[in-house]
Write a structure and sequence with these properties.
Helix 1 packs parallel to helix 10 and helix 12 packs parallel to helix 13. Helices cover 36% and strands 22% of the residues. The chain has one domain: Alpha-Beta Barrel (TIM Barrel), CATH 3.20.20.80. The strands form three sheets. The chain has an eight-stranded parallel barrel with strand order 3-4-5-6-7-8-10-11, surrounded by four helices. The chain is α/β, with parallel strands linked by helices. It is globular, with a radius of gyration of 23 Å. The longest helix is centred in the last third of the chain and has 20 residues. It holds the Pfam family Glyco_hydro_10. It is an enzyme of class 3 (hydrolase). Its EC number is 3.2.1.8.
Amino acid sequence: MSHTYLKYFEEQKAQMEARVALDTRRNRKAFAKLHITDKEGRPVTGVKVRVDQKSHDFKFGCNLFMLDQFPDEARNQAYRKEFKELFNYGIAPFYWADFELTDGAPRMGENPPDVYRRPAPEKILGYCGENGIDVKGHPLFWHKFLPDWLPADRDESFYRLDRRLRELSSEYGDRIRDWDCVNESLTRPCNYMRDTRLPRDYPGSIFKKAAKYFTNNRLFINDVTEIAWDDELGELSAYHMQIENLLLKGIPVDAIGMQYHMFYTPEELEKRAGQFYNPECLFNCMDMYGSFGLPLHVSEVTVPAYGGTQENMELQARITEMLYRIWFSHEQMEGIVWWNLVDGTAAYAPFGSFEGENYYAGGLLNHDMTPKPVYHVLKRLIHEEWHTEEQIDSMPEAHVFEGFFGTYDVEVELNGETVRRELHLSKYGSREFTIEI
C-alpha cells in the first residue's frame, strides 16, 4: 500500500524537489537590509545584533472546533497548548444550523448554549487574541447546514439570511477578517432547484449580500477535494468555470479554498494516488487556480493514518511533509489548514469512536493528546526549517539577511544593555529597515 501511495512522489522526486526549492526561496523569502543608528541618524557599528523570527505571514492553521470541548481539564489544556505551539490561524465554526438553534437567537455573547464541536465565537476569539492567532469564520452559508426552522418561502428565508449576515458582520466583522462565504456549492444535489429557499444562482447572490455587510473582510469560496484538485478537465472543471463565471459577473470573490480530505478507504486511495498523491497534478491545479490572481488556501486537510498503527502514522507523516512542501512553495498559496487536530474528534461521529470521519485517524495528536509523527514533522517544518534567526556579533554599517516573510524581534546589545525592536518583512512591503537606538 505505501509503495502505491508514494509512487508518484518517488518517480517525480528530482523535479519536485527542484521546483519546491526554487519556488520556496522565490515566493516565501526575501533579502532585507538592516541599519542600526543613533538618534541623530548616525550608523552604530560594532554592536551585537540578533534577528529572530517570531511569526509567519503564511497562514498555518487548523479548526478550533474542540477548544474546551473535552470532558477533562487536562486534555482541554493540552489542546490549548499544542494548538498555539504549532498554528497561527484558527477556524471558528459558524454553521447556521448550529449557530442559530432557534429563529432569531444566534449563539452570541459570553454564555451561549453548548453544542459539541461548536465552541462559542467569544471563546475562540479570546484564546486567539491571547496567542496571536488570526481567525477565519466558517461558513457564512452552506446548503447542507440550513436550520430546520428556516421557512420554505424564498423571500422569508433570504430575509433571515440577510439578518444573519448583518448580525455577524456587526458583531465579528472587525475581529475576523476572513470568512468562507459559500461552502461546497458544487456538491448540492441535482434536484436542488426543488428547494424553494435557494435561487438558481445562489452562490453569486450570497456573495453580493455578504459583500454589502463585510466591507473590510475577505470572502472565500470553498469546495471539496474531488472538484478542487481535478487537473484532467483543467479550465473546463466545474470549480474553475464557476469561479470564472462569478468574477466575470463582478461578484466579489476574494480568495479560493481548495479542500484536501483523503476520505477514502485504503483501497480507494490506492486507485486515486495518481490524482491526489501526484506532484504534477498538485502543481497543475495550483497553477490553474493561481491564474485568477487570488490567494489560494488548502482549506481543509485530512491525511489518513488508518487504524493509528505505527506504520500508517509514519506514512501519514511522510506524505504530509511532501504535501506541505509543495503547497508552501506555490506563489499564490497563502495558507494551509489541517482539519482535525486530535484523533477521535472528527465530524459525524461520537466523541472517541472510530465512526464517521474518525475512521481515517487524520489528526496530528492521538486521542490521548500524545503527538503523532506528523505533528513533529509540521513543527519541524514551520518552526525550524521555515524559520529565520541570525546573530551578528559585530554590526557593520549595514547588514543583509535572507528571511521568511513574517514579524521579527531585533535585539541590539549596547553598553551592557539590550534594546528590542520589531520589524515586519513582508512580500509586498519594505526590504530596508533602520533600527534607532
